[in-house]
Amino acid sequence: MAAARVGLASHALHASSSSSTLVRRLPHSRLALLLYPPRILPTYLRSCPYVSAAPARPRPRRLRAMSQSAGTPYAAELAAAKKAVALAARLCQSVQQNILQAGVQSKPDKSPVTVADYGSQILVSLVLKMEAPPSDSFSLVAEEDSEELRKDGAEEILENITELVNETIVDDGSYSIFFSKEGILAAIDDGKSEGGPSGRHWVLDPIDGTKGFLRGDQYAIALALIDEGKVVLGVLACPNLPLGSIGNLNGSSSGDQVGALFSATIGCGAEVESLQGSPPQKISVCSIDNSVNASFFESYEAAHSMQDLTSSIAEKLGVQAPPVRIDSQAKYGALARGDGAIYLRFPHTGYREKIWDHAAGSIVVTEAGGVVTDASGNDLDFSKGRFLDLDTGIIATNKQLMPSLLKAVQEAIKEKNQATSPL
Ligand SMILES: Nc1ncnc2c1ncn2[C@@H]1O[C@H](COP(=O)(O)O)[C@@H](O)[C@H]1OP(=O)(O)O
Ligand SMILES: [Mg+2]
């Protein structure tokens, strides 16, 4: 059965943001920054060693004003999180447009890391520090650290990141902040928190689905807040995902607008809005109760999930439709608004899931009325630090389908284990 591919790269790239940012441009912008009158930094940033207060530019803010409904839990944090990922998404889209010039690094695990990965992390961290209500200590659990950038030979990429971040900040106009190169390195290392069961921790994947990003396909900027071990809010910026729905299974879109921002706060439901700014709409998972009519999402990359196992699960459920393969937590967003009924993720043996790959996506789905568990039906536990400790894989669907999905999953795993057992 052929899988549906949801890439939409060329469409998305043409529809993307106004900035013409190139990674290597803009020597004049620093000068421009110094010409404007100084603006006062919030108290909690004044002690920050790596930024200097640069002048505000008298220009309109391009990001929409985020409403903060009084009485809603975590309203200010949610507004800050949305603004953070929207700004990071602008940087990422601009780099994706220029991907061939942007340069790519390799992590020790060989996964690609781009200039945009670091730039996105810095911008999210900056916006959270500027906009979220100050707490006792700022804690960010994020994917990237500065180790590779501090090595000999990384000077050019560091220069590129510094210019890109500063240009994005100037272009946005919200902040009068200028990063030095040392400041960039320090800002990246803001994301070194270990998380854990107590206190508040922001959790970030600055570019989830780097392979999709490099291919020009789907990716997400995924940000969540963990409070006392529980995910309490999540936002997912999906710059290349159609706003309406992914449409039918051969990947065509139901509408022209591209760029979706999913959000959810605990107890308040889930919403989607346009990344460019539109009123948020409540979303809910699909109401299918017969798995024969279901479709399922899985990784685009076969190396990220066992497609033989997912196909056996689908067969047991009687699923007729081909798998819908999408990169990143965009899958959680699409599931949450009912584009499909099931999400199956079964990494190959030995892979350890990180909390930033599921925190935002899982609350978007659960607040949309869905269920997210491991292969044994246990809730995901985000209180154990940077990794999830779970059984075999992650599955998500609506409440009606979960019992039969869990049964099919367990049968398929048992059969797979028997087939591979030496006896
Ligand atoms: N070998 C692997 N198995 C499973 N997931 C992986 C593997 N390598 C990287 N990932 C992570 O899987 C996520 C993407 O999953 P999917 O393919 O379903 O979109 C990314 O977070 C990616 O990490 P990274 O963010 O470092 O690229
Ligand atoms: Mg990721």
Automatic annotation (TrEMBL):
Residues of the signal peptide: none
Keywords: Hydrolase, Magnesium, Metal-binding
Protein name: 3'(2'),5'-bisphosphate nucleotidase
Catalysed reaction equations from the record: 3'-phosphoadenylyl sulfate + H2O = adenosine 5'-phosphosulfate + phosphate; adenosine 2',5'-bisphosphate + H2O = AMP + phosphate; adenosine 3',5'-bisphosphate + H2O = AMP + phosphate
GO molecular function, one term: 3'(2'),5'-bisphosphate nucleotidase activity
Family: Belongs to the inositol monophosphatase superfamily.
EC number annotated for this UniProt entry: 3.1.3.7
Residues that hold Mg(2+) according to the record: E143, D205, I207, D208, D357
Cofactor: Mg(2+)
InterPro entries named in the record: DPNP (IPR006239), Inositol_monoP_metal-BS (IPR020583), Inositol_monoP_superfamily (IPR051090), Inositol_monophosphatase-like (IPR000760), Inositol_monophosphatase_CS (IPR020550)
GO terms for biological process, alphabetical: phosphatidylinositol phosphate biosynthetic process; sulfate assimilation
